[in-house]
Structure formats: C-alpha cells, structure tokens
UniProtKB/TrEMBL annotation:
Name used for this protein in its record: HprK-related kinase B
Superkingdom of the organism of origin: Bacteria
GO molecular function, one term: kinase activity
Alphabetical UniProt keywords: Kinase, Transferase
Organism, as annotated: Sagittula marina
Length: 123
C-alpha cells in the first residue's frame, strides 16, 4: 500500500479470518507471554527499537495498557463504574507478572516488528 497507507483511510474494516482463510486459523484464548507497547512515532526519524521494560519502573507505559471498564461495567455489589474512573495499577502489575513487556519506539517500521515477532515466535 502506498504511503501514507492506512492512516489516511476514512473507512477501515476488520478482516474476518475464518471467512477468508478458513476455519480453525485462530485461537481465541491462550497464555499471555509477551506484550509490546507501541510507543512509536509516525513522523519519527529514529530507528525502530524493541526494548524490554519493567512496568513497575515505567508507569507511563502502564497507563497506556490500563483501560477503564466503561460505564456499563457493573460491579459485584451492583454498582456501576463511575465515568472516567482510572483502574487500579496494582491489579495490572499483578496480572502482568511473568509477562515479558517490551516498548516499541522510534519510527513506525512494520518490517522491523514483523521480523522481531518472527524471532519471538520461532525462538
């Protein structure tokens, strides 16, 4: 796809993998072993870097991972989550124990992360 590619598309669609590639091509659950935080820049000129991080040392990256459960989340006691409520970082840090977290920074280079992803999955 020519540059600027998908960023300037007005309409984007998800690919329905089973319809295109056939059944049993994806798995909907499994253990989380690695998590990459995309902290790169579309207009950047620095090389793409993929570096391991410790989330407890990089709370700025943890804030990118944490998501509010939205106003429709109903707690066990029956109350609803207040709008704009920030999740508890401790729960995320606990859940991410044992998960390798990497920060992807620099310019957007899909070839670089595809290569690193292949190394990860085949290594």
């Amino acid at each position: 796809m020519p540059r600027p590619g998908p960023w300037d598309l007005k309409e984007k669609y998800d690919l329905i993998i089973p319809e295109v590639y056939g059944p049993d091509r994806i798995r909907l659950d499994g253990p989380l072993t690695d998590f990459w935080v995309l902290n790169w820049s579309r207009g950047g000129d620095q090389l793409t870097q993929i570096a391991p991080v410790t989330l407890s040392d990089r709370i700025d990256l943890l804030s990118v991972i944490m998501k509010s459960p939205a106003p429709f989340y109903q707690r066990t006691g029956g109350g609803f989550e207040p709008k704009g409520n920030t999740p508890d970082p401790t729960a995320y840090l606990d859940a991410m124990q044992g998960v390798r977290v990497c920060e992807v920074s620099g310019r957007i280079d899909l070839d670089a992360i595809v290569s690193a992803g292949r190394d990860l999955f085949h290594g």
